[in-house]
Amino acid sequence: MSETDGFDDVTEAEIRAAFDEQSYVADDDIVTTVLLALRLGRPLLIEGEPGAGKTELAKVLAGGFDAELVRLQCYEGLAAENTLYEWNYTKQLLAVQAGEGGVDGDGTGSGEGPEESVFSEAYLLERPLLQALRGEGRRVLLVDEVDRADEAFEALLLEVLSDFQVSVPELGTIAAGTPPVVVVTSNRTRPLSDALKRRCLYLHVSPPSFEKEREILSRKVPELHDAVAAELCGIVGRLREEPLRKPPGAAETIDWARAVATLRGNGGPDSLTREEVRRTLGTVLKEVEDVERVDDELLDSLVEAARAAREAAGS
Amino acid sequence: MTDESDAGRTDPTDGETVVRATEHVRDELVRFARALRRAGASVPANAATTAARGLVVVGFADEDRARAATRAALVTDPRDVDEFERLFPEFWRRLTAGLGETGPAERWDDPPEGALAPLGGEPADGEEPEATDETETASEPDDDPEGSVAWRSSSLAAHLDERGDDEPLAVARYSPTGSPAPVETLPGFAGHDVLGSAVDELTAALATLRGRAWDTAGDRRTDARRALRASVGTGGTVVSLPTRDRKQSEVRATWLVDVSRSVLDTLDRGFLLDVLGRSRAAWRDCRVFFFDEGVREVTSAFEDGTAEGAAEALADAEAEWGGGTRIGGSLAELRTRTPDAVDNRTVVFVVSDGLEMGDLSALERELAWLSSRAVAVVWCNPLAAAPGFEPTAGGMAAALPFVAGPFAFAGPDDVTELARQLRAQGPGGRVGYEYDPRRKDA
Known about the structure:
The complex is a heterodimer. By secondary structure, chain A is of the alpha/beta class. Helices cover 46% and strands 15% of the residues of chain A. Chain A has 14 helices and 11 strands. Chain B has 16 helices and 9 strands. Chains A and B meet through helix 2, strand 1, helix 5, helix 8 and strand 11 of A and helix 2, helix 3, strand 2, helix 8 and helix 13 of B.
């Protein structure tokens, strides 16, 4: 497969290699679903708790296949002009005042005529969706946290995802030569439309199991002692049983492991101390109510969970 | 898992076999999708087609791959995964049996069983019959005979009439320390105009959705008119591009109203229904749920703008439940049955005294979910109108970290105060009964 090709003939082995290269630990069903998304050319809708690795998957795909990552971070109020294209108003006004452009030009953008239209390529500002459609070679379009955007944006996205083309009234229809791989993520803070789901393959990413989380830490934070990593995973698993405002995801576990490894340097005991847990919990708990919830009793329970995890891991 | 030879069981040179195999796969996929839908799963209309393409890509040799491929196409909600996993083995057995050494089996020689059986089909030996009208009927509330509904309605009307607007509310027993003591007399329901203004203020305080009016403080669209006007002062040069945006003036809300005896005996029902009715009419999207032992959506009772349907719904709820409250259990039911009632632009109002009869840890868990999902959870407690109120009831104490409030909720003045605090501080600010100036004055 050449570098300029899409992902039509990618193999499962190549996906696994890409994941391994990027130290991304993925279950078999994730690999199979990603393979389908690439081979069938269907957008992939990934849902799951924050920190489960949804965004990371798109980044890993881009990194592993030397593809350009075009990221669109969604937020409330996101509108078409923020995502597709805008006209460079200032440049247009200056061009009109200087007599270099007009609103009735031929629109070729050649710059040769005295009355080049200010509604031509030279005045077009591409935004992420248009960039993803018009780019060359392999591209991964990440539409991140689509549930934060308004329903109106979802409708706009449908048009792009259906035909991989957009219509710019002054320029005509712009279609993708090679459709990008599209990854749409959602934290399920609001239900997505059936129309969007119908266009996508669906993947739900659950919080990692104890074993998977240990493997993630061994790859992402190799400098951390294995037994300590197991203890951290045990504590995080215990924390997820608590009714927290923001339960820790895999990303928080990695942050915590890095923090512990940094504080320890090359030394430190091969087991977490109670005080060490207490001082560093701020890296996994991000809400004041959650931090306040960890009283002495819960802290004892966390330390106990750490010991149990260490024994279960045989470290 | 099947062996590798499964994929090659059909002879590709045998056109008829290939056609039959294709039809067999298609039939089984359609049947599988239908079975999932019948079980309540949300399966897109084109899902079977997508699943078929997925199976072509991953082949039929590996059950796990096929499971992942069909799941990616047929499942669109994590709550449907269990149902998918329950039905997949039978789908897979039938699919692979039909792709045997001699090609796909003759149709109908292996009639589908259990959940994959066609609608109306006879159940297999020893199998429970498919859900029928009888079972569905059993799970639904009985259709009340007209006389019964009328009785309930008149019962509530009589209750409201007897009491009258000026009559003080009957006292209920409440004590911050847990010992029985009468609650101080709460103010009676005053005037509708006051309540209307209070709801308007609440709208302004909690608006999360864009309305039709434009605001110049936004960043959504370039304001060409202002740009041109400004350019006059600079000789035609545009120095900056002013923008405008739609004002946030609309509210999306969900009311969760505790209709247990302890609340209904304390709260002015006319006031409650009036608040709910006005919210339903004034806000862009407003859903109303009553809860006690379970949860029930009663939004439609407020559709016609009159109090009759709402009063009837309240009377029905009281007649059906009217016992102890399981707030956590009710919230869990809401989460599993109607999770779309709450999203990140929805303000959730909980009207409850916080007297939880269920598991407190379950209540905490559900409120953690609710608070992380909604834009805000505002707790309206009728007992908080009493000057001596302290949130020491188990449910109320457990709820505090997850909610804004508790706020007093006994009359229009309380709604006004609720709106004032939320407008000044926002739902995440220092708000609640303890910041109510009337409490200090009392």
